[in-house]
């Protein structure tokens, strides 16, 4: 019996492909081209009709309304100063704030969990707390407990932070950390650009009296300053040296920084002539009094306390 053998496979292709196998592939190719053309057309329509980039990327955080215009923040350390002295400090801040419609925030050592960082970091956390409690404030001014506000006529938003005023006060192409830091303030920064105002002391920047403009940049600045790495690092002057580090090595911070003369908001009762207090200055400070005992500040400041009370009563 003979069985039919299966057809043998050949390596030579057939002379042509059947029509039924070519047309479906051709149709698929045309359909892909049509689909791609349609997508390209829809993309074009989107690009033409989409909102402008400024509206599309509008900031998520609304602008502060300026109510209050300023919050004055002070940290009260009862281990360094006498109760009577700190009561006078509170009275001073409250009277000044009342005259201009400002608010005050007084924090104490121990109010915040610093996660093992030195107590001096309380000042930075208190600033962040002020922004949280007064989201519509235009500015937050930190002034430590070693000084008093002496001139009730001066307004922060008008006499320091107004862009036109800052244009005359700020130092451009100026070493950030004295005397000869290679990092300098930008030459092209204008008063309109400024979100942080600092002064210098003999050996560095001062974190005892400074002003921050409320906004997204302020949040970024304070969060950067409070980075756990900086809080845990063994800086000799804790938050002050951390501040010097971040404003020198973060261009985003340096571009919004203005350094002004010490007497603008950080005059010393005793000190170098360029920073020594004169009548009419906004602030007088006694930076070293607490190191000599809690009563020392009370004694050294007595004449200035009498002066500011007299001036405030007359204003």
Automatic annotation (TrEMBL):
GO terms for biological process: protein N-linked glycosylation. GO terms for molecular function: alpha-1,6-mannosyltransferase activity. Keywords: Glycosyltransferase, Membrane, Transferase, Transmembrane, Transmembrane helix. Residues 1-22 are annotated as: Disordered. InterPro entries: Glyco_trans_34, Nucleotide-diphossugar_trans. One of its GO terms (cellular component) is mannan polymerase complex. The chain crosses the membrane at residues 31-49. Pfam families: Glyco_transf_34. The keyword Transmembrane helix applies. Signal peptide: none annotated. PANTHER family: ALPHA-1,6-MANNOSYLTRANSFERASE MNN11-RELATED. Belongs to the glycosyltransferase 34 family. This is Alpha-1,2-galactosyltransferase. The lineage of its organism: Eukaryota, Fungi, Dikarya, Ascomycota, Pezizomycotina.
């Amino acid at each position: 019996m003979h069985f039919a053998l299966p057809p043998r496979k050949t390596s030579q292709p057939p002379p042509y492909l059947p029509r039924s196998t070519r047309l479906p592939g051709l149709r698929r190719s045309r359909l892909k081209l049509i689909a791609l053309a349609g997508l390209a057309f829809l993309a074009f329509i989107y690009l033409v009709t989409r909102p402008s980039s400024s509206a599309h990327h509008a900031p998520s955080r609304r602008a502060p309304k300026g109510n209050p215009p300023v919050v004055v923040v002070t940290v009260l350390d009862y281990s360094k100063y006498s109760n009577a002295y700190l009561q006078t400090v509170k009275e001073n801040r409250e009277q000044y704030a009342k005259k201009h419609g400002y608010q005050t925030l007084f924090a104490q050592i121990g109010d915040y969990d610093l996660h093992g960082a030195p107590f001096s970091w309380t000042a930075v956390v208190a600033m962040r707390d002020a922004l949280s409690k007064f989201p519509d404030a235009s500015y937050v001014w930190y002034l430590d407990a070693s000084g008093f506000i002496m001139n009730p006529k001066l307004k922060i938003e008008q006499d320091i932070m107004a862009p036109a005023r800052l244009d005359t006060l700020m130092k451009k192409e100026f070493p950030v950390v004295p005397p000869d830091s290679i990092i300098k303030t930008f030459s092209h920064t204008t008063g309109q650009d400024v979100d942080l105002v600092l002064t210098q002391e003999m050996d560095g920047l001062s974190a005892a009296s400074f002003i921050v403009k409320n906004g997204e940049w302020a949040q970024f600045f304070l969060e950067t300053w409070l980075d756990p790495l900086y809080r845990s690092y063994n800086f000799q002057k804790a938050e002050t040296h951390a501040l010097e580090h971040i404003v020198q090595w973060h261009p985003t911070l340096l571009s919004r920084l203005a350094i002004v003369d010490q007497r603008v908001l950080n005059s010393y009762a005793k000190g170098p002539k360029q920073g020594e207090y004169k009548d009419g200055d906004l602030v007088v400070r006694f930076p070293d009094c607490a190191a000599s005992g809690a009563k020392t500040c009370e004694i050294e400041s007595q004449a200035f306390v009498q002066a500011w009370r007299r001036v405030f009563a007359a204003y």
